[in-house]
Amino acid sequence: MAVKSLDDLFHETLKDIYYVEKKLVRSIPKLAKHASSPELKDALESHLRETEMHVDRLEQVFNIIDRRPSAKKCEAYEGLAKEADEVIEEIDDPEVCDAAIAASAQTIEHYEMSRYGTLATWAKELNMQDAAELLETTLQEEKAADQKLSALAEQHVNHRAAA
Amino acid sequence: MAVKSLDDLFHETLKDIYYVEKKLVRSIPKLAKHASSPELKDALESHLRETEMHVDRLEQVFNIIDRRPSAKKCEAYEGLAKEADEVIEEIDDPEVCDAAIAASAQTIEHYEMSRYGTLATWAKELNMQDAAELLETTLQEEKAADQKLSALAEQHVNHRAAA
Predict the structure, then answer these.
(1) Which residues contact B84 (CB under 8 A, 6 or more apart)?
(2) What is the distance between the alpha carbons of residues A144 and A142, in angstroms, rounded to a whole number?
(3) For A138-162, how does the pLDDT look when each residue is reduced to its tens digit (9 = 90+)?
(4) What confidence score (pLDDT) does residue B1 get?
(5) Which residues, at least 6 apart from B87, have a Cβ–Cβ distance to it below 8 Å?
(6) CB of A79 within 8 A of CB of B80?
(7) Cα–Cα distances in Å, from B35 out to B29, B44, B70, B93, B97?
(8) Do B114 and A103 touch (CB under 8 A)?
(9) pLDDT tens column, B66-75
(10) DSSP annotation of A49
(11) Is B87 exposed, middle or buried (0-12, 13-18, 19+ CB in 10 A)?
(12) Tens digit of pLDDT for each residue in B26-65?
């Protein structure tokens, strides 16, 4: 990491979240495949389509800062993904597994919300209004995805898991 | 992980966040020590005192479910902490480092917000109102700490980093 300025930090953090989104395009289908609740499966699959757009928006931001899109291994995501994998592998009861999958997906959403919030604020500070708007759009979609998972957990998933 | 019911999942997730809070009691002072902005240092130190209360509240929840407080290694936290450590070690400019420290602290706050939100909802589903209230109280403090860091970043830290 050769970070000497806020521009450098912005670029490094952009590579971090780009890694996360690219990984998610492959790992959300795995979570969806293991979900037994049709509502949870639908929510994950519709978030996959959004995630593909998030990758595209990040590439637009790389373009704005005149850099080639590149990913940097994100240790935080690796830890979050490892926890999600454990859930899938080690919980046999499908309803309890659904509650755990929804919770794991929310930890990942929260990581993304935090990163997009930070990046949008830094973009504004660096007078990159177009980049800030792209990042803010994705931030709002991550928040909405998190709220959808909360509602789903409260209305369906947790109740079945507790039955 | 021997998770067969929502009760088991609640207990496992409680051990996960207990690990995080206990680790934070030791790692927040390290972040505060490396912060150069007095406002950021203050915010981290005041969150340390809250974190000590969070540990205490979790011990009360273990007591409610008749379990001995115990921690389980949280892979997600390990990843988040590794990212925070990299920032401290690899950014020399103190103002840019402050912006990165505030952002890293927010990724950890977001992990906690996600876990406390989930645990409070599960506690309600399992008819443990007292546990739900303890978890909800900490959730509100984590949200407030995150908002304080956002405000601090926007008002002081990022501006100095961009100068």
Answers:
(1) B27, B31, B101, B104, B105, B107, B108
(2) 5
(3) 999 999 999 999 999 998 899 899 9
(4) 57
(5) B97, B100, B101, B104
(6) yes
(7) 10, 9, 31, 11, 7
(8) yes
(9) 999 999 999 9
(10) H
(11) buried
(12) 999 999 999 999 999 999 999 999 999 999 999 999 999 9
Buried b or exposed e, range B128-143, using 16+ CB within 10 angstroms? beebbebbbebbebbb
Q: Three-class SS of residue A4?
A: coil
Q: Answer for the pair B35, B12: CB distance below 8 angstroms, yes or no.
A: no
Distance in angstroms between the alpha carbons of the first and the last residue of chain B: 49
Query: Length of chain A in residues, anyone?
Result: 163
Residue of A93, A109, A121 with shortest CB distance to B158:
A121
B119: its two tokens: 């645990």
What is the structure's pLDDT at A31? 94
Plot region of B35 (φ>0 → left; ψ -120 to 50 → alpha; else → beta): beta
B67: DSSP letter: -
3-class DSSP state of B99: helix
A15 touches chain B (CB under 8 A): no
3-state secondary structure of A125: helix
Question: Which residues on B lie below 8 Å from A117 (Cβ)?
Answer: 106, 150
pLDDT by residue (tens digit) across A88-123? Answer: 899 999 999 999 999 999 999 999 999 999 999 999
Q: List Cα–Cα distances, A3 to B90, B91, B102, in angstroms.
A: 8, 6, 16
- One-letter amino acid at B24 equals L
Tell me which of B114, B139, B147 to substitute to probe the interface with A (most A C-beta atoms closer than 10 Å): B114
DSSP state of A5: S
